[in-house]
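Morning!

This is the sequence you dropped in the shared folder:
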Amino acid sequence: MTVLIVTGTSTEVGKTVTTAALAAAARAAGRSVAVCKPAQTGIAPGEPGDLAEVHRLAGVTRTVELARYPDPLAPDTAARRCGQPLLTLGEVAAAVDALSDADLTLVEGAGGLLVRLGEFTVLDLAQKLNAPVLVVTAAGLGTLNHSELTTRALTSAGLHCAGLVIGSWPATPDLAAECNRTDLPAVTGVDVVGAIPEGAGRWDTHRFTTEAPAWFHPDWSARYLA
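The structure's back. Tokens below.
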């Protein structure tokens, strides 16, 4: 089993659509895929969440969610507010291990690398699983700082950053986006290995799964997804 953790430089940068695109590309290469979302906030019981979107876009049926909380806050804060116990690192690691029969298991975090999913952060989980971390970043102003902070934190923790993916690449990129795409590898020391077209999360399954494999660099896909 290969485990790849998907984190972001912040919230709303496109982690879920990127996770779906990774799943679609891996499935197109003939690999079986499972997706784990340890905690989700801002969603009520019975409502479709991020994993429902991954299923709709990429066709993945093997999905695991451990906790959801109604308030749109960091998971540990949201758990305390509704009186639920905090997730533990051990139970999330066990849930990922239970998916070991899949060729590829994607683990999507919440918010950024140091957001607390419970009693632990995404960084802690990556260390526990000894898994590479893919960083989803924005295209516009601020992304250089956010991306460098995230990749430095990974390096300091002795973790491997599998690459950067721009989670929403504009149909008509402005000067900042064009410059950032060039500058991101220079300031982080990490390659931009993919870019998700703006609005791809609104596409139907056929279009999404057909086009998703082309959004990642082929050499990178051959290493992580094929």
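Headline: The first helix runs from residue 15 to 28.

More detail when I'm at my desk.
O.
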